[in-house]
Design a protein that fits this description.
By secondary structure, the protein is α+β, with helices and mostly antiparallel strands. It is about 25% helix and about 35% strand. The protein folds into three domains: about 160 residues, ATPase, nucleotide binding domain (Nucleotidyltransferase, domain 5, 2-Layer Sandwich); about 80 residues, ATPase, substrate binding domain, subdomain 4 (Actin, Chain A, domain 4); about 150 residues, Substrate Binding Domain Of DNAk, Chain A, domain 1 (Sandwich), CATH 2.60.34. The chain starts with a strand and ends with a strand.
Length: about 525
């Protein structure tokens, strides 16, 4: 068996799909030792729990191996790696004299999955498709690339999850129509408006072009945290209590179970028997009570704002709300009934589709590397940092605006590079990726673990929030221009033009101001997201 493989590395579960060359469609793919079956609509889909366990004798268990051995709650089991990596979380664990971080645990997990999938599917030189969250930064994509290379995958491609989801719902979409992908997984929520272009316009088959997309840092694990906090409040407990910390992981897993139970039944009760603590914890939630908790955290308002933001961006490109043919729901958290109900109220019941919430992204990734392609646009703003001598502060000038389509034929921006000090000959440009800025008054919470494995919730400082929304992309290669002579401070040296190539790389063309000679032409500097 051989084919093109698609992988959706999720916060809670990882899903694989393989392109079936005979049927000309992607099909769910199972790694027997790692996978378990999860019910999706009217079928069972193999998923790999995103878990990695480190044994005391140096072995590593992956996915269902962890579950079958009853080690999911063990302090030696790592989970939620994708969420921590995306957030650049600094947490780390000491285990048997070694330091384990989310990056290293995620690498161990994904490497094992890639190697086993390659062996199971008989992959030779076929491409592998890896999905990337819409709000992901350069560091996350670089991390994926490094893992694929170390796992011996010579050919691989990255694509964002909403576009993959649209391709994964290929049985329902029609060329020439506009669709919304609503992706609500374990770590993030995002909405994308996508145009499926006519096959006649492309020699390689159907393509989809992203018209507008928006994301929020909220997922199923966020709801688990809300339940966690609410249960402690009901029982008059605090997460800082050492006794509470000892049962925090088990309680969080129980919150996840209750959330999933409330997706298919009217009520759910807390079940910690026997509870690993001196507390007699009790909690029961009805559907109405659960939805009230979500509403207290502004959950439904967030969904409305997210959907409206994506629709507004599409409207700027000439596409109205009524142009949306269907809404494609993706991600395990879409199983929450109130989420489905809200989107049906927004778009109408007949337009909301829910047949592949778990495996649409993996299916689309497999289809993508098999030849089904898409056009996209840039998700974040990219800016150069410069020092303003009037106020003696660093400031930012956007050179690539969010929403810019690529590749670009004409330059998207220009600037004049000047010397910052006397005698300078090496010059460069500090390029930053700018994420969504939170209002200062809005609190930002993060779930972190102590070295013992106990969970607690902390609030990020404004500085920490800013650090996570401004990423210096070329920090290790900031200077790439050389003047022909030592410069005076403020002397203009190069005229620079920016473009974006087919591989989503920011390129520069630099011309010497004095001689008019070309110093660099379409030189790639950084890869954009």
């Amino acid at each position: 068996m051989s084919g093109r493989l698609g992988i959706d590395f999720g916060t809670s579960n990882t899903v694989l799909a393989l392109w079936d060359a005979h049927q000309r469609r992607p099909v769910p793919f199972k790694i027997p030792e790692y996978s378990l079956l999860f019910q999706q609509a009217d079928e069972s889909v193999p998923v790999i729990p995103s878990l990695v366990h480190y044994t005391e004798d140096g072995r590593i268990w992956i996915g269902n191996q962890v579950v079958n051995r009853g080690l999911a709650n063990s302090p030696r089991t790592m989970r939620w790696m994708k969420r921590y990596i995306s957030h650049r979380s600094p947490i780390r664990f000491e285990m048997d004299g070694k330091e384990i971080t989310p990056h290293s645990a995620g690498q161990d997990f994904l490497t094992a999955v890639l190697v086993s999938a390659g062996q199971e599917a008989g992959l030779m030189d076929e491409e592998v498709g890896l999905s990337v969250p819409v709000e992901a930064y350069e560091h996350y994509e670089d991390w994926l690339v490094t893992i694929a290379e170390k796992a011996g995958m010579p050919r691989f491609r990255l694509l964002d999850e909403p576009s993959a989801a649209a391709l994964g719902y290929g049985a329902h979409i029609q060329p020439g129509n506009v669709y919304m992908v609503f992706d609500f997984g374990g770590g993030t929520m995002h909405a994308s408006v996508i145009l499926i272009e006519d096959e006649e316009k492309s020699a390689i088959g159907r393509r989809c072009r992203v018209l507008g997309k928006a994301g929020r840092d909220i997922g199923g694990t966020t709801i688990d945290q809300w339940l966690f906090q609410d249960i402690l409040r009901r029982n008059r407990l605090f997460d800082g209590d050492p006794a509470v910390r000892r049962l925090s992981t088990a309680l969080l897993l129980e919150c996840q179970r209750m959330k999933e139970a409330l997706s298919s039944q009217d009520s759910a009760c807390l079940q910690l028997n026997p509870p690993p603590s001196p507390f007699d914890l009790q909690a029961e939630y009805t559907q109405a009570g659960f939805e009230e908790l979500l509403d207290e955290h502004g959950f439904f308002t967030t969904i409305n704002q997210l959907v409206r933001a994506a629709l507004n961006l599409a409207a700027e490109r000439g596409y109205k709300d009524d142009d949306i043919q269907a809404v494609l729901m993706v991600g395990g958290s879409c199983q929450i009934p109130s989420v489905q109900r809200l989107l049906r109220q927004f778009f109408g019941k007949e337009r909301v589709l829910y047949s592949h919430p778990l495996d649409a992204v993996a299916r689309g990734a497999a289809a993508f590397v098999a030849g089904v392609d898409f056009y996209d646009h840039i998700q974040h703003d990219y800016a150069i940092r410069y020092f303003n001598r009037q106020n003696m502060q660093y400031e930012y000038k956007v050179v690539v605006a969010r929403g810019t389509s690529y590749p670009t034929v004409e330059p998207i921006s220009r600037l004049n590079v000047k010397a910052s000090h006397h005698g300078q000959q090496k010059l460069g440009i500090a390029i930053f990726e700018l994420g969504e800025q939170r209002p200062r008054a809005e609190a930002s919470l993060e779930l972190v673990f102590d070295p013992s494995g106990a969970a607690r919730i902390t609030q990020l400082t404004p500085h920490e929030q800013e650090q996570r929304t401004r990423f210096w992309m070329n920090e290790h290669n900031p200077t790439f221009l050389t003047a022909g002579h030592p410069l005076a401070q403020g002397e203009a040296c190069f005229d620079v033009e920016f473009k974006i190539d087919y591989n989503k790389r920011l390129t520069i063309t630099a011309r010497d101001v004095q001689t008019g000679q070309l110093a660099l032409q379409d030189h790639p500097v950084v890869r954009l997201t």
